[in-house]
Design brief:
Length: 67
């Protein structure tokens, strides 16, 4: 999933390689003083391309979920 807006990675909810279920919040982006959760769109193992406190621009790849 890519960032739909610029912001700071407030919290990463899972570790790399951990199993996530569809609909679970996997990370929180802080943008314009709002905390915006991003949710898993499928079941699988999650792998992140960002770290907590990192500032990201719109379009930055944040994570993937593999079966």
């Amino acid at each position: 999933m890519n960032a739909s807006l610029p912001g700071r990675i407030e919290e990463i909810k899972f570790r790399d390689g951990e199993w996530v279920e569809e609909g679970r919040a996997v990370l929180i982006i802080e943008s314009m003083k709002m905390n915006i959760p991003l949710y898993a769109k499928s079941n699988g193992k999650i792998f992140y391309f960002v770290e907590e406190d990192e500032f990201v621009l719109r379009g930055k790849k944040l994570f993937i979920i593999e079966d």
